[in-house]
Amino acid sequence: MEPFRVHILGCGSALPTLRHYPSAQLVEIREKLFMVDCGEGVQMQLRRSRVRFTKVSHVFISHLHGDHCFGLIGMISTFGLLGRTAKLHIHANELLEDMLQRQMALFCRDLGYEVVFHPIDASRQEVIYEDRSLTVETIPLTHRLPTSGFLFREKPLLPHIRRDMIDFYGIPTSQIQNIKNGADWVTEDGTVVPNSRLVTAADQPRSYAYCSDTRYMPELAKLLKGVSTLYHESTYGEDNLQMAQKYNHSTARQAAMTARDAGAGQLILGHYSSRYEDENVLLNEAREVFENVRLANELDVINV
């Protein structure tokens, strides 16, 4: 299968610590790179990740708290210094556009490439990006500011060719794509070989959901049904449930409840409060509800 990976650049919350950077991720799928949130320090993390980050084409900003977007203007400037010519697309709340334009006018003169802004409506679930193999949808979340999660979905994949049958019937390479698309094969003597004998079932399309920041939303599981990998904030443990409720965040247990109810394949915890020196307390809490869970850490590469 083509790579579908998530690179964790930062998984802390509002206060950077010596162990965690603010929120930022790269989603790598079919040789395309998408950035999700862009917290302070993201450029250093991009360097450390050894990913060709100049290939980032779209940036999705969940909401306008600084720990999710303070790194954006610095990255835009650096792309200009590196000689970028390709457009960079920014998807974020409409309030960011004017501020970003003012920053660029002050710090990024003669940028050399175009920054294209796409406002998103945090109250709706809708497709905001689409190409031949992928869609990206917004996920309405509940936080102190308008906030969107993002759901990356592969489109249905084509079946696998049975090489043994292709060789047996002497089917030319030029016909393989037609067969992948459902065509039968007719031999020279007129025998019809059904498509089902020439292919095996396609791989299941994969999906990745990014949900940070949000209070616990029982209804969220319906929007995420069957997601392959879910990244869900776990700012607090149940020991700080009142803090989670006050600031519209989630506990690790609540994140696990969402993963369980959505039938997710795996759960990634992140956006940790700086009060936790050992996040294993969050991991253990989540595992009481949902077994296939892991902690995010900087520079982790997670296969979706």
Structure description:
This protein has 304 residues and is of the alpha/beta class. Helices cover 24% and strands 28% of the residues. The protein has 9 helices and 18 strands. The chain has helices spanning 42-49, 72-81, 95-107, 163-169, 176-180, 220-223, 241-246, 252-262, 280-287, and strands at residues 4-10, 24-29, 32-38, 56-60, 88-92, 115-119, 127-130, 134-141, 147-154, 160-161, 185-186, 192-193, 199-200, 207-211, 229-233, 266-270, 293-295, 301-303. A 7-stranded mixed beta sheet has the order 6-5-4-3-2-1-18. Strand 14 (207-211), helix 6 and strand 15 form a beta-alpha-beta unit. It starts with a strand and ends with a strand. The model has no long low-confidence stretch (mean pLDDT 95).
Give the structure's gist in a few sentences.
The protein has 304 residues and is an alpha/beta fold. It contains nine helices and 18 strands.
